[in-house]
Amino acid sequence: MYLGNVIFLIVFVISITFFTKNLTRIISNIKLGKDINRTDNKRIRFLKMIRIALGQTKMFDRPIAAFFHLIIYIGFIIINIEVIEIIIDGVFGTHRFLSNFISYSSYNFFISTFEFLAVLVLVSCVVFLYRRNIQRIKRFHSPEMTSWPKSDANLILIFEVLLMSAFLVMNAADTLLQSLDSHYHAVGAFTFSSFLVPLIDHLSAEKLIFIERFCWWFHIIGILLFLNYVLISKHLHIFFAFFSAYYSKLSNPSKLSNLSSVTSEVKMMLDPNIDPFSNTNNTNTEKFGAQDADDLNWVQILNSYSCTECGRCTSVCPANITGKKLSPRKILMDTRDRITEIGNSISKKKNKDENFLLGGYIHPEEVWACTTCNACGDACPIELDPMSIIIDLRRYLVMEKSSAPSELNTMFNNIENNGAPWQYNLNDKMNWINDDK
Amino acid sequence: MQLEVKTMAELLQKNITPDFLYWVGSAGSFDDRAKKITRAFVKVLNYANVSFGVLGVEESTSGDVAKRAGNEFLFQMQALANIEVMNSYNIKKIITTCPHSFNILKNEYPDLGGNYEVYHHSEFVHDLIKSKKITISQNSIDEVMTYHDPCYLGRGNNIYNQPREIIMRLSKNFIEMPRNKRNSLCCGAGGAQMFKEAEKGSAEINIVRTQEALDTKSKIIVTGCPFCNTMMSDGVKNINEGAALVKDIAEVVAESLI
Prior knowledge:
The complex is a heterodimer of chains A (437) and B (258). Chain A is mostly helical and 437 residues long. Chain A has helices spanning 2-30, 42-54, 63-92, 104-133, 147-177, 197-200, 205-229, 237-246, 260-270, 298-306, 312-316, 318-321, 328-349, 357-360, 364-368, 375-379, 386-400, 406-418. Chain A folds into two domains: 2-31 and 62-246; 260-427, Fumarate Reductase Iron-sulfur Protein, Chain B, domain 2, CATH 1.10.1060. Helices cover 61% and strands 0% of the residues of chain A. Chain B folds into two domains: 8-126, Rossmann fold (3-Layer(aba) Sandwich); 137-255, Rossmann fold (3-Layer(aba) Sandwich). Chain B has eleven helices and seven strands. In chain B, strand 6, helix 10 and strand 7 (245-248) form a beta-alpha-beta unit. In chain B, helix 3 packs across helix 11 (249-255), helix 7 crosses helix 8 and helix 9 crosses helix 10 (226-240). Chain B is globular, with a radius of gyration of 18 Å. The two termini of chain B are 15 Å apart.
């Protein structure tokens, strides 16, 4: 067992090191974003996080997906208690460490409960694979769901099926070994894996030990691989959903931020007493709106890493429903891919590359198709806010590039000249009183 | 019928401070269809003897279209000018017949120094009915009615029930569209889309939404937004002219006053 422990420790330390390194990289990418204050109302934010991320209340807007997702979620959390035991066994060469502290019957009860969850998780993953690949639910097959996002989703599900299967087969082999080898504690047959026992009960003790050990290693290495895989996958939502929910917007959903940099300039324009040339400490050269992912604020970038590409936003987007190029999910995916690209470029070449989010990833046609109806934000189970990114991209297009669609420029001119988006004389503003057409 | 309307300037001259400012909005002032909504709502206000004033030529656009189109400069110029006017009249409470003005005055003006109690007219009329300041004839409408939620009223500001309660008083034949309340589909006008051609796609949003309304077999499509009204009216014209009337909540109430 000595060699096994050493190998286990090496694998464990390497994977945790990689995990920490890559997580740090993602966090530093998020920090590339502009500052925004979301430290207010801590209590309300905490409760919202509990409700949205832990309680998954918005998931239940679509009950079928929510039901199976909840099973996988509960299974994931509870079966991970068993992982603690697996790690202890791995480090110290013990077997079923926790059974030393409680009666065999209660230990059996716990493991049987985990098995029950494992079976439920397995079934749920199969249901999800069916929904994605055979039922082909529309939102999983939009144009932005290119080969990687599709494989990513399927890989995660297959991964979980394999992990759960390994756990059950391991327990079945263990049950048989309990009467063959004293190393295996006589905790009794477990409720669900006992159904697998007839498939392997003809095998020799050596073969059973091989199966048991193989599944054990497969399970733990699988979990450690998965931990690292999560960081390059949409599956990151299992951690980041909590943060995105906590830092989400608390104000009315349709409230947009007012750019404070604009306020000071407009106030200066409107106040005849201010001499614009006397203001010598005006070193404000801030870009209006967002051209690139690092012009966005860090909550928007956190949002992009939290998105699990479920596509509920896109499935309710009026522009997307009517065949326009805009997809709120794509806006978030592009933001994530671009900020990752910026991060990589900075770490390799010490400065940013020549690419941009706007133009390089997101076309203005997408940006201009938005009706700002906020169906996307409302549909998001973890309160992500793709619309705010669209607005920031529009701000850049209008205020920095003056490249709004021409009809909108006409509308802007009308507002400047007559205080209304249409070309009417302001003096006719009260005509409605007598205009009984 | 002669409407009783005074501007804030006229009222100030007589030393009158009205209880409310009625924010008419650009559409309500200039758009031919929306002007009818404005008149209908003023009829209700007059009927209930509400003390109110309007800003008239002193009212500029709220800036919603400019802001949603990304022109934060233009929005803030309008907003700061409007706030200066409203604060000079010491305005405390505002009613508006447009969910876009409602949203922006209520949620986005405060950060710029404009703090008001803001009501959408569907809330306000609902209160008038509840407090018996107006009476409407119950079940006076036989036609099937449906209600289209304006995004900035419903999803944006969580006002779903008041307009529905008013409609259900007027008609026993109220039918919801499959997509309603939080799941309501936009009419296609928001975010400055009203002022531009839609991007290339497979369908127009207003046609899709109007079809959903017509599929309920409704003869009257009620909404609470001048822009939704335009989009849905165009939709009906496009799909089957005359199949249904598109009316504002203020209009159906004004027609049922007793």
